[in-house]
Task: structure prediction
Amino acid sequence: MEFKPDRYDRMLLAAVQQNSQMPQSEMGERVGLSTAAVNRRLRVLKSEGVIERYAACINPKAVGYGLTIVVEVKAESERADLLNELRESFKACPQIQQCYYVTGEFDFLLIFLVRDMEQYVQWTHQLFLSNNNVKTFKTVVVMDRVKTGMQVTIDR
Result:
């Protein structure tokens, strides 16, 4: 059975996305619930998989990752086992911030955060050039981070 967040859950989800370190008492004041009710609801949202994890948003440049690169990858073969191997290699790469299996002219869309072009070139050799199931890859260098984030719009 699918979990259906109610109005209070949706308000809590919006609040926790805005600031996951907001005290539960403050969240309760905002949404009209007691601190205990907020705590209980957040635990349920986490156990149901609605809240996947709590995280901090870090400025990549502040920690030395000044280059964002978007990569389109086309697989040689779409055999399930070979695609799964590609998926796993992308999941294991610490410089890949996001990986999407997509429809269209290519199979994967990757978002890399790297220190510099030299580091990216090293990863291209390891992930693409030495992999027999990578047919082609196209690199796009990001000039400016106009908008980033992982917030989900919460309809009330």
Q: What stands out?
A: The mean pLDDT is 95.
